Amino acid sequence: MKSIFIASTLVLSLSANAFAHGDDNYQAAAQTHQGRATEMGKPGDADKVSRTTEIDLADTMRFTPSTISIKRGETVKFIVKNSGKIKHEMVIGSMQELKEHAALMLKFPEMEHSDPNQVSVDPGQTGELIWQFSKAGTFDFACLQPGHFEAGMRGKIIVK
Questions:
Q1: Does residue 14 belong to any structural domain of this protein?
Q2: Measured distance CA(21)–CA(27) in Å, rounded
Q3: What is the CATH number of the domain that holds 106?
Q4: Tens digit of pLDDT for each residue in 119-151?
Q5: For residue 143, is it within any domain?
Q6: pTM given for the model
Q7: For residues 145 and 150, what is the distance between their CA atoms, to the nearest angstrom?
Q8: Which N-terminal residues, if any, form the signal peptide (predicted)?
Q9: CB atoms within 10 A of CB 144
Q10: Is there a domain that residue 115 lies in?
């Protein structure tokens, strides 16, 4: 009887995993940011941080500050504090990438990601994201937890 229980548990867990990760849309969602954020820069080296910027994430669905100015070439350490009571994140990308990923997060709310252009922060916690901005332009960041992007939790990074 014990071996039947173990076998059935294994089958259920494998089929659940296949369902969750076998879906083509889920695979696309998991790869949405990978490598695409490089148009604005690359993951930064902690030893080469030239600036530290603090960002607060709040349950009002806002970032403070929501606009950040940076010099091209700077390696910035973002200290990201979640002052709210629900999970938030900061994801850097183009508006198109962020919109696509936000839509997929609504469809797959259990999706976890840990890409170098994002940091997820539990309530009351602080995280950090280090990024080197090598191209001038205006770039976006947002919280892609389900519903947060749609509620207006977004910001701009202006690189001169």
A1: no
A2: 6
A3: 2.60.40.420
A4: 999 999 999 999 999 999 999 999 999 999 999
A5: yes
A6: 0.75
A7: 10
A8: 1-20
A9: 31
A10: yes
